[in-house]
Design a protein that fits this description.
Strand order of the largest sheet: 1-2-3-5-7
CATH topology of the largest domain: Trna Endonuclease, Chain: A, domain 1
Largest sheet: 5 strands, mixed
Radius of gyration: 22 Å
Structural class: alpha/beta
Number of strands: 7
Order of helices and strands: HHHHHHEEEEHEEHEH
Shape: elongated
Helix content: 55-70%
Number of helices: 9
Number of domains: 2
């Protein structure tokens, strides 16, 4: 799906906007079409109903902005040892076997169902993340034979770093994603 298509935009928007479009289709059909065609006209809103349900399902489990800010402030106040313990507990609760690493780019190794992931989180408090740390993580993923790589940051990630992460298949875990991971 194109990122700026109507349906992609609606998926990123609050769910009720799609439902409002369904209502508009139904009302317009009732007002403008002969009675025998109202049902067919109203069915034009069906794609928006599906998008609204999908958006609602996604947004149901997404933490609120207040929750994200509270989590961010709490994590920013932590020392590395406490933050690493928090991450380890969160991933363990999801069924991962967590191993601490002393690699240049990776801090944790996650294993579950025969798949392994590396997590880099030591620079989680840095105000702006660049490509260097992501390069180290990508090199460690290749050297250690991990399937996936996750980079955790509370600060912003530069555009160059975002492009590099996308090219290398590195998942960037920031704000809302981190609050979701640490929800318990």
């Amino acid at each position: 799906m194109a990122p700026n298509s109507l349906f992609a935009i609606l998926l990123r928007s609050p769910w009720w906007i799609s439902m409002l479009l369904v209502l508009v289709f139904a009302l317009a059909s009732g007002a403008l079409l002969p009675p025998q065609y109202v049902l067919f006209g109203a069915m034009g809103g069906l794609p928006f109903l599906v998008i609204g349900v999908l958006a609602a399902k996604r947004q149901w489990h997404t933490p609120s902005a207040a929750r994200v800010a509270e989590t961010r402030d709490r994590l920013a106040a932590m020392a590395w040892k406490d933050f690493a313990n928090t991450l380890q507990a969160a991933y363990s609760a999801q069924g991962y076997t967590v191993t601490r690493l002393s690699a240049k780019g990776a801090d944790l190794r996650l294993e579950k169902n025969g798949s392994s992931s590396l997590v880099a989180a030591k620079r989680w408090k840095a105000a702006n993340q660049g490509v260097e740390a992501l390069r180290d993580l990508a090199a460690d993923r290749q050297a250690l034979g991990a399937d996936q790589a996750i980079y955790i940051s509370l600060g912003g990630v530069t555009d160059t770093a975002q492009r590099f992460a996308q090219e290398q298949g590195i998942q960037l875990l920031t704000d809302a994603g981190l609050a979701q991971l640490l929800k318990n």
